[in-house]
Amino acid sequence: MKDSSSTPLAIDPAEIIATLREGLLVLTEDLTVEYASDRFLQTFGVDKTETVGQALADLGNGQWNIPALLEPLSEIIAHNDTLEDFEVEHNFEHIGRKVMLLNARKTVRPGNQSKLILLAIDDVTEAAAHAREVFHLRQLSEGIVDTLREPLLVLDGQLRVIGASRAFYRTFQVEAEQTIGEQLVGLGDGQWANAELIRLLTEIIPEHTIVEDFEIDHDFPNIGRRLILLNARKIFQEGNNTKTLLLAMEDITAQRRLEDERKEALDHSHRLMEELNHRVMNSLAMIGAVITMEGQTLTDLECRAAFSSMRNRINSVGKLYRNLSQTASVDTVNADIYLGSILKDTISSFEDTVGAVKLDLSIDAIPLSTRTAVPLGLIVNELATNSLKYAFKNRDKGLLGFKLEVKTNRIEINLWDDGPGIDGKAHVESGIGQKLIQAFVQQLDGELSVSSGPQGTRHVLKLPIIEPSGSEHATHDGPI
User: Fold this and answer.
1) 268 plus 303 within the same structural domain
2) Which of 137, 161, 140, 138 is nearest to 151 (CA)?
3) Which of 106, 253, 452, 461 could form a disulfide with 457 if both were Cys (CB 3.0 to 4.6 A apart)?
4) 332: domain range?
5) β-pair partners for 105
6) How far apart are CA 98 and CA 91, in angstroms?
7) Measured between alpha carbons, how far is 64 from 441 in angstroms, rounded to an integer?
């Protein structure tokens, strides 16, 4: 049985040549064109009669007089060499720039044993342009990577490192030969062999294309313990559907340390403020108790009332510090809790029977800055004290109402009672309480109006909404 591989093909060589994508020239020893394929003629836009029988250097009015091409061909004749994938670039007058990939081989003509050169020429101009573009893009991308301040790794689909920024080498004190071509899990002492990270990169990223703020806490060689925040993104390359992963890193060790120190400092300041609040509350409570004891020793009713008013004013300030302590705040109190407790305590100190005075409260839950809360609390205490003193005189039961609401550009406060109203003919005291109210209303840049009749007395206090800095037009979210 004959070996079919050694059987000559019964095919016309011209048919084989016609199927080749390369142009083909057959040259004599002196580099004269003896044959030119149709593909060569079409690719370079020349006529057969102007080509066959002409010296290669004379083709196209000397356009093929290319030393980079002629010299290697002469070497083939002299030394029986071959030419494989030899690239020549030339700018032709009538067809422009061409990049040619050459393959040449010496052969012998049957019969007279004269030497010939078979020269295959492949027009790779477009491929070369694409390769050049890819090269420039790669240079650009590598330049961008190297200019990043944060460390960056470029990984292939198998999590093998194919690129790294200078910041990566500098941050982790490693060399390129220790990094490029290595698997991510094998870098360093295995600090990147984090099971959750690998799962994210291999499973979650193919679905969601991005991972953000993944934290690694590790004791790295040479640089010690670090907290690293990782961000990963998958990039698809068009055409071959290959995957590239970008893994950016941020060293947040110093930042986290500063955050911890800041938190510790804040906690310490809060503890100090809480301790200060407790001491102030205890001091005010002690002063109030002393005033109460002194007042109980007095026989004059007006003096006892004055001592009682003084105690209530101190208590209203004490309520501020108690609220600060309960809310762990240093500069704001809750209006509903703070003012509500002042009114309840004021009623308790005046009524003879528990529950005799009904309190109707409606207070918007807004934060009050301490510089607003102190004078406002004293105003509310004085107004409530006046109502209790005069509206409930000679009667056991009654109603005291209080409403605070935030409107477009102001706070509006209403305090009313269901007493007989203010007697216009009666002597109106102008004591310390009234002076305090006027002073504190002026301090808050407010307006206070009073209306009274047989159905009761109503006080309306309007205050501008102010920011902590003191400027107007604050939002309702901030302390007032």
Assistant:
1) yes
2) 161
3) 452
4) 257-464
5) 82, 118
6) 6
7) 101
